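About this split. The held-out portion is used to measure sequence recovery: a designer receives only the structure tokens and must propose an amino acid at every position. Recovery is the fraction of positions where the proposal matches the reference. Here is one held-out target exactly as it appears in the evaluation file.
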């Protein structure tokens, strides 16, 4: 079979488009009618490469045509609107199914008509192929066309009473071939999920006469020359209009990543509220600072390898304050400060293990301990940090193994849950978030704990935006903080508000190798209202 020709059709010139407009009464509703199909027509059969080239040729033709239309539009000779049409075409496998039938139908047809008889999986694999058998078996089981033979192991048979079938998959694919779509969106979704059809978006244009329409395209002067001024020819010359919408050449300069812009805005909010930034340069922490000092039990699920990255070398932390470690171990084992503790033998070996910090609260813990040890006694403090944390999580559209945590901590005498809620309202109002709700939650190191929700007008529902709570006495008193001193804290991710601010749906487009450099350069400055 000769390969279909997919050579590109010629794009009409500016004067040809004007003549066509005149011939069509001043309006062309669909420029697809101007496209001449290649001599071989649309490719058929299994040549997926030829099909791709065919549709690429159509798209490139419309793109080249738009360049001509833009030129005529700048002269006000025409106006045009961009239109688009979504259609579907079968993939290579889809075209094969439309021709031969679906895998499930072919499997059913390969089985004996008598449902009491069957055929071995090995024979079916030889007759149909391993892939066809695997896919067909799953689909045919789901449709209750085929069953495992009740008495013969590794045999398949037809389901009793199923004497005829309708191969809807093949019929749907034939309809897609003919009409480019289906009326049932659920079927479209299923065929796309099975990669049996491919979505096509074709851009085309509707054209109309403009205020300066003419059948002839005059040459426009671009410069006013000395000779024109001397001869006076400028009076009758036609000049090209200025395009005030044209962008200048982009400056050669660096650009801040959107995360850094939002991070800086968060820092400004904290500074306005009188907070001091904590040092967060230690990505590797001991389990003591990351978990034990926060009153997280050593058997907690967050400390499993499924959630935490453990450091192999060096294997152990070196400097942990011995007196503080002893007090932390005692409160874990025996309790204290109104708590019964966790009642388990505290492991020195576990507390010295090194991990990539799972939260910046490890930094907050170290800072609160330092405040408790400072000469002259306790002084109230407001602290914040914004830096990277690491979780052993599967990467998907909304989760990364490495992300940023925004955290605020306030330590003072006799502050309460009401103060925490008040701080939350002030903090989030500076981000433009005023409609808040609080829901009781559980954290090992805070009690009471609150999840923070905000009403998302776009999604029309309440979404979680942060976590907060009052640090437990079992965490604070072993540090040396005096009775009456309470500490409130809250945290949220940096990535989520950045994605909302810039309209990014997939976190991998914000961080990682899929980040658009052009998008970073064009990202607007951020100012929370």
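Reference sequence for scoring:
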């Amino acid at each position: 079979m000769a390969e279909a020709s997919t050579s590109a059709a010629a794009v009409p010139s500016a004067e040809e488009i004007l003549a066509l407009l005149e011939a069509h009464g001043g309006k062309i509703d669909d420029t697809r009618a101007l496209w001449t199909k290649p001599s071989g027509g649309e490719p058929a059969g299994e040549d997926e490469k030829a099909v791709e080239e065919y549709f690429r040729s159509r798209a490139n033709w419309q793109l080249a045509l738009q360049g001509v239309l833009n030129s005529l539009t700048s002269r006000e000779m025409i106006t045009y609107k961009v239109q688009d049409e979504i259609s579907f075409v079968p993939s290579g496998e889809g075209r094969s199914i439309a021709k031969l039938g679906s895998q499930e139908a072919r499997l059913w047809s390969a089985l004996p008509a008598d449902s009491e008889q069957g055929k071995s999986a090995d024979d079916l694999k030889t007759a149909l192929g391993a892939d066809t058998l695997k896919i067909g078996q799953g689909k045919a089981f789901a449709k209750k066309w085929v069953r495992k033979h009740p008495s013969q192991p590794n045999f398949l048979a037809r389901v009793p009473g199923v004497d005829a079938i309708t191969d809807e998959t093949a019929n749907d694919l034939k309809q897609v071939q003919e009409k480019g779509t289906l009326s049932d969106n659920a079927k479209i979704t299923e065929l796309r999920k099975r990669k049996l059809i491919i979505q096509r978006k074709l851009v085309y244009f509707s054209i109309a006469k403009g205020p300066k329409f003419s059948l002839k395209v005059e040459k426009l002067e671009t410069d006013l020359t000395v000779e024109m001024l001397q001869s006076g020819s400028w009076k009758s010359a036609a000049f090209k209009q200025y395009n005030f919408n044209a962008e200048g050449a982009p400056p050669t300069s660096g650009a801040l990543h959107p995360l850094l812009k939002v991070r800086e805005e968060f820092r400004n909010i904290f500074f306005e509220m009188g907070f001091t930034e904590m040092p967060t340069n230690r990505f590797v922490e001991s389990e003591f600072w990351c978990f034990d000092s926060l009153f997280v039990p050593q058997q907690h699920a967050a400390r499993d390898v499924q959630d935490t990255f453990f450091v192999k070398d060096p294997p152990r932390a070196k400097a942990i304050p011995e007196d503080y470690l002893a007090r932390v171990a005692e409160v874990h084992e025996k309790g204290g400060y109104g708590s019964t503790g966790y009642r388990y033998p505290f492991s020195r070996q576990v507390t010295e293990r090194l991990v990539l910090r799972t939260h910046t609260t490890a930094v907050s813990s170290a800072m609160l301990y330092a405040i408790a040890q400072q000469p002259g006694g306790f002084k109230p403090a407001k602290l914040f940090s914004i830096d990277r944390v690491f979780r052993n999580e599967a990467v998907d559209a909304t989760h990364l193994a490495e992300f940023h945590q925004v955290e605020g901590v306030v330590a003072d005498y006799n502050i309460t849950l009401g103060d925490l809620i008040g701080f939350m309202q002030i903090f989030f109002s500076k981000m433009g978030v005023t409609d808040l709700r609080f829901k009781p939650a559980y954290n090992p190191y805070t009690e009471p704990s609150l999840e923070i929700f905000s009403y998302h007008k776009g999604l029309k529902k309440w979404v979680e935006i942060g976590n907060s709570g009052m640090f437990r006495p079992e965490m604070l008193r072993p540090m040396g903080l005096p009775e009456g001193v309470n500490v409130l804290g809250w945290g949220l991710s940096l990535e989520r508000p950045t994605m909302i601010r810039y309209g990014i749906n997939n976190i991998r487009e914000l961080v990682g190798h899929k980040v658009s450099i052009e998008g970073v350069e064009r990202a607007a400055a951020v100012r929370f209202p």
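Annotator remark: Residues 1-6 have pLDDT under 50 and may be disordered.
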